[in-house]
Amino acid sequence: MESLLYHGYSVWGHAILQQADILQPERYAASGTITLSGKLVESSGILAYFDTEEEAQHAGLDWARAWIDSLR
What we know:
By secondary structure, the chain is an alpha+beta fold. The chain has one helix spanning 53-69; strands at 2-6, 9-18, 27-36, 39-43, 48-50. It is built from one helix and five strands.
């Protein structure tokens, strides 16, 4: 999980390991969360699937920043 502050909000990018079978390569589901003063503002659900944890986290952060930008 990766987080940062963006226009006063805390935004989180999540990478959720998805591995149905040990013989399949690891994949990561991306999601994002936005909080303000410790309270949940919005969460994305699954956005997409990625090959790396870092890609998934960045997708979640990108979604959160775009959601906040849509309010401005």
